[in-house]
Amino acid sequence: MKKKSLKKVTSAVLVAAMSMGLLAGCGGSKSSEEAKTDADGATVIKFGIHVANPKKQETVTYNIVQGFNKENKGKYKVEFVAADTEAHSKNMKLAAQDGSLPEIVHLDSAEAPEYNEAGYLLDMSDFLKENKDIDDALDGMEDAFNDGKVQYGLPYQSNVQGFFYNKDLFDKAGIAYPTDDTTYDEFLDMIAKLKNSGVTPIAIGSKNSGYSMWEFNEFFSRYGWEDNEKSYTGDKAKYSNDDMNACFEKIKGLADAGAFPENMATIEYFDAKQLFNEGKAAMFGTGQWDCAEFDKNVGEHIGFWWGPKFGDSSYEQNIAMKVPAAPLVVSSAVKDNDKAKEALYAFLKYYYGEEAAKISYEGSIFPATNYDGIAATDSQYAMNAMITALGNGWETPKAAPDQTVTPAVQEAMYDAIFGVMQGTYSPKDALKNMDSAAAN
Amino acid sequence: MKIYHGGPGYKEDERMHWLSKKRYKIGLVIPTLVVYMVFIIIPIGMSIGYSFTKYSGIGKATFNGLTNYMRLFKDRLFWISLKNTMIMFILAFVLLLSLSFLIALLLNNKLKGVDFSKSLIFSPAIIAPIIVGIIWVYILDPNIGIINNVLDAIGASGLKQKWIGGNTLSPYSIAIIYFWQQLGYLVTVFIAGLKMIPGEVLEAVEIDGASFIQKTMYVTIPMMKSTISTVAVLIITGVFKIFEIVQQTTGGGPNHLSETLVTYSYSMTFNSGDYGYGMSLATFTFLLSLVITGIYSILTRERGE
């Protein structure tokens, strides 16, 4: 009898232990308040980044991190936690729930406020107070990530967005290059001529890359997005109005003119960029992160343009889409970890310092900071084209329109733009979908 | 009556008797049950729980009752993804069940080149679905795909279609891709079933003068009922899990028009950050596959069983 009871107890204990083991395995671990160190005794901080291969895909950031690690060997070390954009977003949400958020994370602007509200992020006001030079160098660009109480992030870089164009293809088609004053009607005329010359006027791909709509942020701004910010952000946002309808009608007009590739639904952003690199497309909407690639593939034939001006809009047309890139945020867990905080602040000082700004310019990326005497070289054709465009001194928005909305509205916005381009939605239906996303 | 009582197999029989005791059966099942609970039942329960909340994946979920389910039935894209799933289900079910059985019948004969044909037909089943998607993009893409380029080359440009990426044909194309991918695997299951039919039964039927069709209709199919049921359930559950092919060929686009229930649930959950609504879609999909499998089981249940 005793033997049987013992067996029962043993079985029960084993089963319970196994169950607990499994549950523990699923539960993950809480971040330790002890700072992690490497074999050299350097304090290690993790950097969650939105690309799978930082060395290739975010070369400048990779070089900045390498520069920091080299300068601080044996003292501090930054290690990447890398995954492609979609996986990164999922991973960071899970890590936040789990308490294992990397010390520093690149977050989408639309998601960052929610992380802040949930208390996952460190207020970086102290860092800026302690580093007045960096605060000055950021020149207000950090305001996009301040909710009035908490400085929950700092801009990763400066994003400059618009149309890149291939001058060679324009020359072959006998068309003048677009200028600051080119109107929408002139743009349509340009598209017709480019199409007749046998090239795709504007390369774009929507498969798994709805986010690749940077050139249309300028459209939204020129139809008064910033002036009507309150109508376009928050829970009661409403997009069905005459301004946005006119804006979407212009996108439809481009589609009707045959501006986009026929297979835009089955190609991705990278495929579309390839069309431009290979000289099969005359224009490509993107930002400065592609400059280095264009230098290599298009070289001195590259040009940059903000986009057309709209005669039917009463809003400011002299807008340069130079905006803060999605923020770098810091895990609130760092607050209780002096060593990690020390390493992190050292890294941020380096990241927003003059040396990193030089590395940025070398890689054709505009840093979030402004320091005198740093410039692109003559062979950085794409970046110089952007610098020329920025030379007009136009006003810049506080943030890109697509970065001011919630993730659900952002997704609906991307869907709306590509839906209108592909003839799936009328402009009115597209805007209704955005309204619904905001209401949900 | 104990066959081995007192004989050399007695000890083995006793051991079997030991295993047949209820408490030991339970003991043996518990580890599997625990794993099943932790990795299947609890996540399903949690998903169902989240389907009654508003949750962005960040911070805390807030209970919102049936709101997500009410929204589901008003959502045009939900109906599109349901329609696409059902198109794929009907096409895949009809084509896969019938053709895989017929091909199995053919390959079960001693014909020249049967082994090579079996390998050829089975080969797509060992390719990862994501690679299957990539292969088919190069076949179906309206611009770079082989089909439209061949049509151009033979002067039949008028027949060119947007096989994927258009507003209509994507779900049909995806069903064909799924058919291509699954055919070999299901043929193999059927061949295994055919091998289980006693040879003497078939010989007797042949001696009685039954034609091939009569033999198939009155002997093979009735004796293959359990295999057919297994294959049917595999198809039903498989169709409700089609994900990678859609992601790779169209990404659910254009504008969600080629979404299935699973990809739309994924899109809502991870792209729109609407975890609560995404989970209500997942719960609906789970229930729908349960219902269809249940209906099929009831319809095919033998009387008196």
TrEMBL record, chain A:
This is ABC transporter substrate-binding protein. Keywords: Signal. Pfam families: SBP_bac_1. It comes from the Bacteria. Residues 1-24 form the signal peptide.
UniProtKB/TrEMBL annotation, chain B:
It is found in: Cell membrane. Keywords: Cell membrane, Membrane, Transmembrane, Transmembrane helix, Transport. InterPro entries: ABC_transporter_permease (IPR051393), MetI-like (IPR000515), MetI-like_sf (IPR035906). One of its GO terms (biological process) is transmembrane transport. Gene3D superfamilies: MetI-like. The chain crosses the membrane at residues 26-46, 86-107, 119-139, 172-194, 227-246, 275-299. The keyword Transmembrane applies. Residues 82-296 form the ABC transmembrane type-1 domain. SUPFAM superfamilies: MalF N-terminal region-like, MetI-like. PROSITE patterns: ABC_TM1. GO terms for cellular component: plasma membrane. It is a multi-pass membrane protein. Its main location: membrane. The keyword Signal does not apply. Belongs to the binding-protein-dependent transport system permease family. This is sn-glycerol-3-phosphate transport system permease protein ugpA. It comes from Dorea longicatena. The lineage of its organism: Bacteria, Bacillati, Bacillota, Clostridia, Lachnospirales. The gene is ugpA_5.
